[in-house]
Amino acid sequence: MADERETKLIIDDGAFKVLSEHQSPDELYQELISRVKKYHPSDDISLIEKAYNLANMAHKNQLRKSGEPYIIHPLSVAIILAELQLDKETIVSGILHDVVEDTIITDEQLRIQFGNYVALIVDGVTKLEKITYNGDKLEYQAENLRKMFLAMAKDIRVIMVKLADRLHNMRTLQYQPHDRQIEIARETMDIYAPLAQRLGISKMKVELDDLSLKYLEPEVYYDLADKINIRKSEREKYVKDIVEDVAKHIRNAGIEAELDGRVKHFMSIYRKMLNQDKSIDQIYDLFAVRIIVNTIPDCYAALGIIHEMYKPIPGRFKDYIAMPKPNMYQSLHTTLIGPSGRPFEIQIRTHEMHRTAEYGIAAHWKYKENSDGKRVEESEAEKMSWLRQILDWQVNLSDNKEFLNTLKSDLELYSDTVYCFTPTGDVKTLPAGSNPIDFAYTIHSAVGNQMIGARVNGQLATINYKIQNGDRVEIITSQNSRGPSRDWLGIVKSNQAKSKINQWFKNELKEDNIQKGREMLLAYCKSNGIDPSVIMIPQYMNAILQKYGFRDWDAVRAAVGHGGLREGQIINRMKDLYDKDHPQIISDEELIEDVNEAGSHKRLTVRRNGGVAVQGTEDLAVRFSKCCSPIPGDEIIGYVTRGRGVSIHRTDCVNIISLPEDERARLIEAVWEREDSADSSGRYETGINIFADDRKGLLVDITRFLSDKGVSILNMNVRTSKHGTATIAISFSTSGKDELRDVVEKLRGIPGIIDIERTSG
């Protein structure tokens, strides 16, 4: 029988040990070295010391928004990485992760001084130049994520540094302006906390979740904290009694074990309250008891003892040892009725499983080092298929916003999974709600492409059957299959299946798509009065190739042909580049001759006071054109019409851009001086086109949002395609460009919306 062990009770002491504030850089550096020496087999810290000296020099005189020396941040990031027990190169990369982005140090200098691995990791974490993306935050976010995932494929430690960087930024978020707090917390909740979960790093996931909740729902966060603390002593006694009772029975059975009790983190409690529509007083299983044993047989033996002691709740037992989660998590979960009739959860796992649960991929997929500092490379078997899927999306999803939406969707989908079996007994993990088509594509692309039917548990099943836990699925294939149907895109649940189906259509119909794309690009130019020979020149074509990551122009045409990119995206981007290279300058006092129907002449000049006013020898009417609906904040220009005064257009209006040369003399400069020249309420009509995945309730969500924002809808038109996409044209009144930008930014957050464009004539 094992020696009696002291049970320990942990009540929400944080995922990581948070360092005390106001430590000096040297104190933090010594703390870092102390932590590294606790787990690292080599005592040589020269590389870490060299990195610290360089970073300290490079960040000299730089301060964070808190007023602290900037070097505090990279040191804190390195300490988080040391708590994950990562190798020295990762620690060094954490110290240096901001030097290329924020100082004069170059990538080449890092490569020479610290080697290719450190340079690669730092480059993977370094953000792209913002100037490239013209202020489009979604484009910028998506491109940075693409860059990070490509770097992850070469070295998984990139994401470790990025997550540690985000965690420390979240800990110090109180020093940011309120709008930045919301923006960063939202991105953390949508991307980085789910990423930590997919990588199995629960220590990071828990803290990122709770810190996000603190800034996104502060009232909820502090209310939970207050209510949990009110009955803290009572709950501690309750779980302590259970821990002691369980520990006694486990020891009596001769099983060596460590036990602890912990409060569930705030986000977990909050989501349970929302999903079950309960108050915190109605959530009884706020605590979980964890049993850590030496072997897998001990796990099941401990489970039997627990089920003898307490009555298990039917349907609440999960065996993640036999069927691990996609992020490698393994444990036995069971929910039981406690001594006072209150439910509580017990988790049983081995020490190795516990390490994986806490550190996830950092516990397995890392570059281990021997005591002599030499690397032991990780095996191919340790690489996760999920990352390979993301790399497929890099190629297949050329549109940045589609890539971002797919990533968010995938992270959300895999928060709830089902486990099923192949005919040979292999376990497959799928997002809840998946069907046999999803299953087929987890086997192989060829199996999905040649699928003609399926059997579930020996019985024929429809292709839209929702797979349940424990189902045995067999895919029926045929060499005579014509390939997947486009209808499958609206049926499948997993993004992996959608990506592979889209890839089939791209490859199968490549030549047709190239020809179709060529015609669509030329047709768009013709309908918008754009000369293709002017914009389709190598420098602008190369800019498109670089922006969307295509190898050649045929790939662009194919993407347009199969619907991956809209022709307007390509042509308008090239036209913007052309316009920047060929600015049109009209002087403030340029004389314009207007020949009216009677043949008389007027001499007009721009007057720069009032709203949008044009004044000449006679009064002329000034009106806003309906084709492009200019609003305050837009760059505008006037056009002297024949007999109808001056019409005001946006400078990017296609009717202005496509004016014949002999008509361009009628253009006259105009500027905004006041915002009272529209209707009496100071409102201006404008229009947007929303491109979205067609789904039930989409229109309701959009109109409800606009109504809640007080936006008056003037007109709406909806078109849907056979490919499952919808185009919604909306015109409404707005006070100006700032309000319009705010409306569009928030509309992008509605699920299913792919892109939003301003109408331009």
Describe the overall structure:
The chain is an alpha+beta fold. It has six domains: 25-216, Hypothetical protein af1432; 226-364, 2-Layer Sandwich (Beta Polymerase, domain 2); 385-508, Beta-grasp domain (Ubiquitin-like (UB roll), Roll); 510-581, no CATH class; 592-669, no CATH class; 684-758, ACT domain (Alpha-Beta Plaits, 2-Layer Sandwich), CATH 3.30.70.260. Helix content is 46%, strand content 16%. The strands form seven sheets. Strands 1, 2, 3, 4, 5, 6 and 7 form a seven-stranded mixed sheet that branches. A four-stranded mixed sheet has the order 18-20-19-21, with no helix packed on it. α3 (72-83) packs antiparallel against α4. Mean pLDDT is 76; it is low at 1-15, 128-135, 365-383, 585-610 and 675-681.
Short description:
This protein is α+β, with helices and mostly antiparallel strands and 761 residues long. Helix content is 46%, strand content 16%.
Distance between the termini: 83 Å
The biggest beta sheet is recorded as: 7 strands, mixed
> Average pLDDT value?
76
Give the structural class. Answer: alpha+beta
Work out the helicity level.
40-55%
Count of domains? 6
Given as residue ranges, the uncertain stretches (5+ residues, pLDDT < 50) are 1-15, 128-135, 365-383, 585-610, 675-681
Strand segment count: 25
Strand content: 15-25%
Q: Which architecture of the largest domain does the CATH hierarchy give at level 2?
A: Orthogonal Bundle
CATH topology assignment of the largest domain: Hypothetical protein af1432
Question: What would CATH call the homologous superfamily of the largest domain?
Answer: Hypothetical protein af1432
